[in-house]
Write a structure and sequence with these properties.
The chain has 334 residues and is α+β, with helices and mostly antiparallel strands. It has helices at 13-20, 24-29, 33-36, 54-57, 96-102, 108-133, 154-169, 180-187, 190-199, 201-205, 214-225; strands at 10-11, 39-42, 46-51, 79-84, 89-95, 137-140, 175-179, 229-233, 236-238, 248-250, 256-260, 274-279, 290-295, 300-306, 309-313, 319-323. The protein has a five-stranded mixed β-sheet with strand order 6-16-11-7-8. A four-stranded antiparallel β-sheet has the order 1-13-14-5. Strands 2-12-15 form a three-stranded mixed β-sheet, with helices on one face. Strand 13 (290-295) and strand 14 (300-306) form a beta hairpin. 33% of the residues are buried.
C-alpha cells in the first residue's frame, strides 16, 4: 500500500480523480513512455532482475525417452541485470489567499496538479527516449524506400524487415514506435492503402485523413503492415534554456522508427525490450497520485506528485531502430 512520504503529507485522491480514469494530460501531450516501457512493480528500490536471451530460449533438445527408461533433462539458465529506482517528483506551491480569491474562476490546486503531472511525465518520457537513442541505427532507408516516397513499397519492405528481426530475436516484432508525422505519411502511402484494402473496405476507409479517424488510422496502418500495435508519439517539448522562451521540437524524432517486442506481463523472463520498474513503498503510485502539505511560513499549500521509477532494458536483441524513414520535405508548403 502506498504511503505518504512525510508525516505532514496528506493524500489528495480527490485531485487524482480528475486524471485517473483517462490520463488526459498524457493523452493531450502525446506521451508514450509508459506504453513503450510498461510498468512492472518491484517491492525493492534497487536490486537485480532475471532475463533470458535468445540463446537460452531457443535450444534444441532430444525429447525421446532414453534406453534406461528415463528422459533427458533441460536446465533453464538466466542472465541478470540491475535496476535502481530513483525517487522522482515535483511540487508546486498554492497560495491560500490567491486560491480563495480565485475560487470559482481558477482552480489553483488543479493547475498545480497538472503542472507537476506534466513535468513528471516528461521526465519519464525523456528517459525512455534516451534508451531509444542508445540503440545504434540498424538501417537507414534509401531515397527509394522512404515512406514519403509514393513509389516505395512499404509493405514489402516491412516483410523483409520482420524476417531480419525474427532471425535476430527469434520472434517477430509486435510493436512499432513512430512520430505522428510518420503515421500521417504511412497512411497515404499507396502500398499501405492497397494492403489495407485487401484486408477490407472498412480498414481502407479508416486511413482517410481526418482527426476523427486518427485512432482508427493508427490501427489500420498496423494491420496493413502486419503489426499488433503502433505507438504514436505526439510529444512536443521546449528546448529553450531561458524561462518564458520557446524553441519547440518533437520529443521523438520524426524520421526515426523503432521495431520492438513489447510485453506488459509481470515478468522479465520473456523476450521483450523495455520496462519501467516502479517502487511504491515511498508513496509513489503509477497513476495520478498527489499529496499536499502545509507550508505555514508562506501561507501556502504545496501540491506534490511522485513517480519513483527506473527504465530498464531487458533484451537488446528485441529492438531494431530505423533511421531516415521519411523525407521531412514531404511537409513543405507547395
Amino acid at each position: 500500500m502506498a504511503r505518504a512520504v512525510t508525516d505532514i503529507g496528506t493524500p489528495r485522491d480527490d485531485i487524482g480523480l480528475f486524471f485517473e480514469a483517462i490520463d488526459l494530460d498524457a493523452m493531450r501531450r502525446g506521451y508514450i513512455g509508459m506504453l513503450v516501457a510498461p510498468i512492472i512493480e518491484s517491492v525493492y528500490k534497487r536490486g537485480r532482475f532475471s532475463r533470458r536471451d535468445v540463446k537460452q530460449v531457443l535450444k534444441s533438445t532430444d525429447a525421446s525417452r532414453t534406453a534406461s527408461g528415463g528422459y533427458n533433462r533441460v536446465t533453464s539458465r538466466f542472465d541478470e541485470g540491475d535496476f535502481s529506482v530513483k525517487e522522482r517528483g515535483l511540487e508546486e506551491r498554492v497560495d491560500m489567499n490567491e486560491h480563495a480569491e480565485n475560487l470559482g474562476m481558477i482552480d489553483s490546486e488543479l493547475v498545480a496538479a497538472e503542472a507537476t503531472r506534466h513535468g513528471v511525465l516528461e521526465d519519464h518520457e525523456l528517459r525512455v527516449i534516451q534508451k531509444i537513442n542508445s540503440v545504434a541505427v540498424a538501417e537507414t532507408l534509401s531515397a527509394g524506400d522512404k515512406w514519403s516516397n509514393d513509389a516505395a513499397d512499404v509493405v514489402k519492405y516491412f516483410a523483409r524487415l520482420k524476417r531480419v528481426f525474427r532471425l535476430q530475436c527469434g520472434v517477430q516484432p509486435n510493436c512499432m514506435v513512430i512520430d505522428e508525422s510518420a503515421l500521417d505519411v504511412l497512411a497515404v502511402n499507396p502500398s499501405v492503402i492497397e494492403a489495407a484494402g485487401r484486408v477490407g473496405s472498412s480498414v481502407e476507409q479508416a486511413l482517410e485523413f481526418n482527426d476523427v479517424n486518427r485512432e482508427l488510422r493508427r490501427r489500420a496502418v498496423a494491420i496493413a503492415l502486419g503489426l499488433q500495435e503502433i505507438i504514436v508519439s505526439k510529444g512536443i517539448h521546449n528546448t529553450a534554456g531561458e524561462p518564458l522562451e520557446s524553441s519547440l521540437s518533437t520529443i521523438f524524432p520524426e524520421d526515426k522508427a523503432v521495431l520492438m517486442v513489447k510485453s506488459a506481463e509481470p515478468t522479465t523472463r520473456h523476450q521483450q525490450w523495455l520496462r519501467t520498474v516502479h517502487w511504491s513503498a515511498g508513496g509513489s503510485r503509477p497513476g495520478c497520485a498527489f499529496e499536499e502539505y502545509v507550508e505555514p511560513q508562506t501561507k501556502s499549500n504545496v501540491i506534490r506528485h511522485l513517480l519513483d521509477t527506473d527504465v530498464i532494458e531487458v533484451n537488446r536483441e528485441a529492438v531494431m531502430v530505423l533511421g531516415g524513414v521519411l523525407d521531412l520535405d514531404f511537409f513543405a508548403a507547395a
